[in-house]
Amino acid sequence: MSIGTAFHPRTAALNRKMQWREWSGYFAASAYADAPDIEYNAIREAAALIDVSPLYKYEVTGPDALRFVDRVIVRDATKLQPNQVWYACWCDEHGKVMDDGTITRLDESTYRWTAADPSLRWLRMNATGLDVTIAEVTESLAALALQGPLSRGVLESLTNEPFGDLRYFRRRPSSVRTIPIDVTRTGYTGDLGYELWVDTARAVELWDAVMDAGAPFGIMPAGMLALDIARVEAGLILLEVDYTSSRHALIPEQSYSPFELGILGKLVTFDKDDYVGKAALQEEQRHGGPPRRLVGLDIEWDGLEKLYAAQDLPPVMQATTSRSHVPLFLGRRQVGRVTSTTWSPTLKKAIALASMSVTHADTGTELSIEWTVEARRGRAKATVVDLPFFKPPRKTATAG
């Protein structure tokens, strides 16, 4: 049975339509406003507050904490500095991605690890022989994503501290009304944003303080529907939507190498000691790499209009992201599948993420995507484009 997060006393009162979804055993608001595009606009034009507490969270401590992290992730953990955050993935022994998440080095021997799937047992299995402690802190640590172009102003008003010098993927402890918080310049929207980490006992106080500080900036709570649109624009993958964890794969084809998943492949290093999956990944590269690749697609609007006109209907694009997988064709041959499709209110076009044959994945390649109107399948033109679709300079810029 799902339960509320530490912020539920506030989010429940705001979610008047009771639009909830389940996220790792917690209630997560799908939307608070009458339409998700209202909340999306807050992400892209003002500031939005998103409860991301259901993320699985682990604390890794001990003399061998660094050796453990380096043993598990595909990146060289010796380069991760205190107060720095890394995006990373971890693989099984076959070099297939189990999950992706963030790792924050809090000090010389303490790390905070986030994951989409429960990973405690697997992490502890890989800690064998090391002097390290891995504790799950999912229930004791709450998290808020403060995102949007005005998020820095909200944060500075909230803490009475300047944050213009906090670099992208860096971390800084702070406090709000005597509430200790941890601030990381991270997020899942592809925009300027921060994540605030707080003890669950002080979560409601923090929510109230952020909403008070954010009122002059037009802050709004945002749900998962708005977040889903923003993350597709940012070209960010979602577990069990854009790829399947190797832990859940029923057949080999459902498992993915990091080199099939966009930026994850760029994070893989072979210039370090052995880690889980390294030998398999090296073997994969010796054979030319995996046969699939994650790409972005621009979907031609004229083609969509024609499909609807054939049914005497005006074109309709739903205001939410579709997670339905549909075929992708080159001529009459299927060369991949679309995994996430959405209308981008900012870019004013239909976009999608797709997994497809690397042979036909070059930027500019013209393909066709299956599109169903009134139960009749048709095809619309789509062009391979570079990811991300949306990357504003403010996302990584520092002030002054």
Gross CATH architecture of the largest domain: 2-Layer Sandwich
State mean pLDDT (0 to 100 scale).
Answer: 97
Indicate the radius of gyration in whole angstroms: 21 Å
Q: Tell me the structural class.
A: alpha+beta
Q: Can you identify the CATH class of the largest domain?
A: Alpha Beta
Find the count of extended strands (DSSP E, 2+ residues). 19
What's the helix and strand layout?
Elements: H1 8-14, E1 20-23, E2 26-29, H2 36-45, E3 48-51, E4 56-61, H3 65-72, E5 84-91, E6 97-107, E7 110-115, H4 120-125, E8 133-136, E9 141-147, H5 151-159, E10 171-176, E11 179-184, E12 193-199, H6 203-214, E13 220-221, H7 224-233, H8 263-267, H9 278-286, E14 292-299, H10 301-309, E15 326-330, E16 333-344, E17 349-357, E18 366-373, E19 376-385
Parallel strand pairs: 3-13
Antiparallel strand pairs: 1-2, 3-9, 4-7, 4-8, 5-6, 6-7, 9-12, 10-11, 11-12, 14-17, 14-19, 15-16, 15-18, 16-17, 18-19
Helix pairs in contact: 2-7, 5-6
